[in-house]
Design brief:
Elements: H1 6-13, H2 21-39, H3 43-46, E1 50-56, E2 59-62, H4 63-76, E3 81-94, E4 97-108, E5 111-124, E6 127-135, H5 152-158, E7 163-165, E8 174-179, E9 187-188, E10 195-196, E11 204-209, E12 217-220, E13 225-231, E14 240-247, E15 250-257, E16 262-263, E17 268-271, H6 280-283, E18 284-288, E19 291-300, E20 303-312
Parallel strand pairs: 1-6
Antiparallel strand pairs: 1-2, 3-4, 4-5, 5-6, 7-8, 8-11, 9-10, 11-12, 13-14, 14-15, 15-16, 15-17, 18-19, 19-20
InterPro entries: Integrin_alpha_N (IPR028994)
């Protein structure tokens, strides 16, 4: 995740004017209360502080998403505290919006660190509301677990169906899920039973894992899917993961080594318009040490047949 603040400072600081003392004092109290709500580990207390849509560490988020992230932060670090270092706060104002910059001192899990932080604040219905929240892009440890990037996959997984297994080979159970694209209206084509589907920002699905040491896997052109735990196929100690790309008249099985995101075989295509009601065991099975048998739909002389082959895994 990229945390954008330099451009914000250029836009808001240059040409900004001084804030009257009353507004500045009230903004200082607002930031102090915002910090205290973090230290009290009370995400509901933060709800009135935010606009409905917020630029949150470089990404647009709803207020509900921001509060969910705060809740997960507090649950992960029940000793979490934050406060403005030396009570030094700078406030500038432009067109009714305020840029508040300060150095925040955070403490969690025995770690103490200082971050150049900012809030962009406006007034709505007579109260301050946060438009933007973030830290300077010059910050050197933006991968610290207190920042939203560390919880992105957990947020995605929490709202999707989970597939459990040992996908990183550490002997412990973890889980995966699929982040599917947002569909536009599906338009019927001239071919009966098929459809042309459009997705917002492209029809790509992403497998994400609860284990932080596993990279996401992106499947292009997939908008409807199902995951399968294929167990340990190549004897590396980790479960392989299967991804079904489901279309109106076909299903395609992708067999991935989750530890490095590579395919163990070419995608296994099944023409479901012809070969109906096939299950996983009908198209894929373990056939020995480092061997699998795959069965595909193949068109031969204008007819669709099922063809099987044995694949030797590396």
């Amino acid at each position: 995740m990229k945390y954008v603040v330099s451009l914000l400072f250029v836009v808001l600081v240059f040409g900004c004017k001084e804030v009257n003392s009353k507004d500045e004092n009230n903004l200082r109290k607002f930031v102090q209360q915002w910090n205290e709500s973090h230290t009290l580990l009370k995400s509901p207390y933060l709800a009135p502080n935010y606009m409905n849509v917020v630029s949150y560490y470089g990404k647009q988020r709803s207020r509900a998403q921001v509060l969910q992230d705060k809740k997960m932060l507090f649950e992960q670090f029940p000793d979490y505290t934050q406060s403005v270092l030396n009570n030094q706060i700078e406030v500038t104002e432009e067109a009714g919006k305020y840029l508040v910059t300060f150095k925040n001192r955070v403490s969690y899990n025995g770690i103490e660190a200082d971050y150049d932080s900012y809030l962009s604040v406006t007034i709505k219905n007579g109260a301050f509301r946060i438009l933007r929240e973030g830290v300077a892009e010059t910050t050197t440890d933006l991968d610290a677990p207190i920042f939203p990037k560390a919880r992105e996959n957990s947020l995605n997984i929490a709202s999707n169906r989970q597939l459990f297994g040992d996908f990183n080979g550490d002997g412990l159970s973890d889980y995966a899920t699929v982040i599917s694209p947002k569909l536009k209206v599906a338009l019927q084509s001239d071919d009966q039973g098929s459809a042309t589907v459009e997705c917002v920002n492209g029809c790509n699905s992403v497998i994400v894992f609860s284990s932080g040491d596993l990279e996401d896997i992106t499947i292009k052109g997939a908008y409807q899917s199902q995951l399968e735990n294929l167990k340990d196929l190549n004897r590396d100690g980790a479960d392989e993961i299967g991804f079904w790309d489901i279309k109106p008249t076909s299903k395609t099985l992708y067999v991935y080594n989750a530890t490095n995101g590579t395919l163990l075989t070419e995608p296994i295509f099944i023409n479901t318009a012809v070969h109906k009601s096939l299950k996983l065991i009908d198209v894929f099975k373990k056939s020995g040490v480092n061997k699998i048998t795959v069965t595909r739909s193949v068109e031969v002389d204008g007819k669709w047949i099922l063809k099987s082959e044995i694949i030797v895994l590396d």
